[in-house]
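PROTEIN DATA CARD
Card holder: Alpha-ribazole phosphatase
Chain length: 231
Origin: Acetobacter senegalensis
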Amino acid sequence: MSASVTSPQIVQSNQGNFLDTPQLATGVTRFWLIRHALVEQNARMSLYGTLDVPLCPDSLIAQRPMYEALAARLPRKARWLISPLSRTRCTAEAIQDAGYGPAELKVEPALIEQNLGEWQGMAHQDLPDHLHLAPHPFWSVAASECPPKGESMIDVCARVGRGLDHLAETYAGQDMIAVSHGGAIRAALAHALRIHAETALHFSIQNLSLTILERLEEGWRVVTVNELPGI
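Structure generated from the sequence above:
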């Protein structure tokens, strides 16, 4: 009988961490991670990694409602972060133009996509001849495969994890909107959940999707993954 009694002190200490309402609490260190918009068709035919490829102009027009939904969903008082690649800047600017309003964009190198080294620009059908390991079911390469002069997904997880910890400490208690990349967001989930990079590659991170992470005193918490705006 006594084993089923819950300590009032434990309940008291955890009450503030429950997500009981759609409105997220203020004063929490929170990352709003957005994958950049769809890149143009020719770029999608190859492994573009950290190549600075442009967005698809047609999708920028057709997906305007998604940008408007993101603009309405995101917190007003937030710091905006982008990777060094123009596709994240253009996506951030499109969200701001869709109703959020102007905000300073700070470049955060830790949030860049996986560097595929000498394989960047290679056609997808040519990649298997260069692999040493079987590809991941949901990614072009295994998490431990390191392209020549590039980085493995394990490397990306370490890089992104260090970057998130630094940002969480620098901007403690603030909202951060970060427009980044599919690989980097998967790496962020690996860091938050303390899972292996190979496991993190099972997450689907679609273009313009929203993933929310919180850094609480007790540790990292995942609020939402791959939330599609307006859907």
